[in-house]
Task: structure prediction
Amino acid sequence: MKRLIFHIDVNSAFLSWSAVKRLQEDPSCLDLRTVPSAVGGDIRTRHGVITAKSIPASRMGVRTGEPVVKALQKCPGLILVPSDFITYREFSRRFIKILEEYSEVLEQVSIDEAYLDMTGRCADPLAAAEEIRTRIRTQLGFTVNVGISENKLLAKMASDFEKPDKTHTLYPEEVPAKMWPLPIRSLYGCGPRSAERLSQLGITTIGAAAAADPRFLQDVLGDKAGTYIHNSANGISTSPVRAEEEKAKSYSNEITLPEDITAANYEQMMPQILTRLSDKVAGRLAKDGVRSSTVSVIVKTGGFRRHTRQTMLPSATNDPRTIEKAARELMYRLAFSEDGLFAADETIRLVGIGCSGLDDGQFRQMGLEEWLRDIEKISQKTEKNKKLDAMLHDIERKYGKGALRKGDL
Ligand SMILES: [Mg+2]
Result:
């Protein structure tokens, strides 16, 4: 049976969400989407890079990822606002909640995009897409593009056509007319290096890659990438929409403590435990070449009750410090909030960290936040890490080598 796949993508997500938040707080304020504006950098010092921009800013040549200074040269009146990930996560949650009403086979691929498998779920795809767009626009205040096709690749390509607030189809029979004339670099999964290499060899459009001898593409790009590019250029993709239940696979590590953690010794014990557990889980993710977008903490109390809390990251990662930061926040709330464990006079006897929402990263485009962090990391000195490392080994010295083990969520 032919599949029916929707790809739903929020238009300039961070910028739109910042704009909507401002309007909610003050309905008379300027709508950032209607003027040259951008998210990113340090607003005060005007350093850093652009992480999102409005369509008017884009028309003036402002590009995502470029230094704020450069963007301001192109567009001196550019309005800059800081990132606000708390707001972004909340809007993302509401966006997904609406989509869930249309199909339970939903795969969220990043903070602002998801696939829906609509096979057998609607008689009129265009009407369904229209309804989704209208509901998101009227109920949440921002716009999305919907791409419709028979597979994920083509649905994703379609949602990237003209923006904002548009539905596009890209059925296999439409590929020659709608996709082949596009430049090769716009083929999803074709990185800038591959695109440049292919262009040098005269393959400048997706159509040229589709017509090329697959063995030639494999020679140039390697077997895996060459096959991928040839299939994709021909609109072939068999990857299923992985609903949450199917990718329930998760990585976790946990530790049963020799003495319970209480409010009194929390600060002394918990941070180093979370650091070590994050290292373990992140190490296993990295070893398997996967990244996780959902971090959870697991606690067993002195009374043997199990509690978990989880949070979604703006982009999938296997960076131990990112996982640790999320785990620390979750754990602190679980322990110290008004309805938390310590308020209920509980103690903590087991601590775990789990990572789910896995992404094999094969053709993943690096999240900007992560990219920024990588740049920062390179510029940071190792001194801090050394100190941390010494602390990490402390716990194993104290509790023994086997103290940290794989969890079984
Ligand atoms: Mg988007």
Notes: The chain has a mean pLDDT of 86. The pocket of magnesium ion is lined by residues 9-10, 13, 112-113 (CB under 6 Å). Residues 266-287 form the longest helix (22 residues).
